[in-house]
Amino acid sequence: MKANKGYLLLAALLFFTVNIKADGLFGAGWKPKPNVTLFGQKITWPIPSICIGAKAGVLPNAGLSSDGVNLKIPYLAVDIPFPSLTLKSGEKVIKLKVGAIEKSTQEKEK
């Protein structure tokens, strides 16, 4: 039974630290943001954050953008990011976000 717990712990550590890639068509990763790639199309969903205490600040603030929603009140800060989808077609790259579309060209690797 103890050996099974060790294997489960090792599997959990590998799951949270390993990035998987298969020639750009399939993949998954945790860094810099959690993402999954299927058939070359990548969906990214950053992890929401919450901060409680003096480090959160004392001035109220709120914001809404294509990147996410943030809210700050004294001693509480909440940041909820929105997901994004990256579509690639040849050299063209289009990043779809809530309320925004970013177009760019992919640089060729040397």
Describe the structure.
By secondary structure, the protein is mostly beta strands. The chain has one domain. Helices cover 15% and strands 48% of the residues. The strands form two sheets. A seven-stranded antiparallel β-sheet has the order 1-2-3-4-9-10-11, with no helix packed on it. A four-stranded antiparallel β-sheet has the order 5-8-7-6, with no helix packed on it. The longest helix has 16 residues, at 2-17. It is flat and about 45 Å long. The mean pLDDT is 82.
Detail the topology: elements first, then pairings.
Blueprint: H1 2-17, E1 20-22, E2 26-29, E3 35-38, E4 41-44, E5 49-52, E6 61-64, E7 68-73, E8 76-81, E9 84-89, E10 92-97, E11 100-105
Mean pLDDT: 82
How far apart are the first and last residues' alpha carbons, in Å? 51 Å
Q: List the total number of helices.
A: 1
Strand content: over 45%
- Percent of residues in helices comes to 10-25%
Protein structure class: mainly beta
CA-atom Rg in angstroms: 19 Å
Give the H and E element order.
HEEEEEEEEEEE
The parts where pLDDT drops under 50 for at least 5 residues are none
Total separate domains: 1
- Give me the side-by-side strand order of the main sheet: 1-2-3-4-9-10-11
Number of E strands: 11
How does the major sheet shape up? 7 strands, antiparallel
Q: How would you describe the shape? A: flat
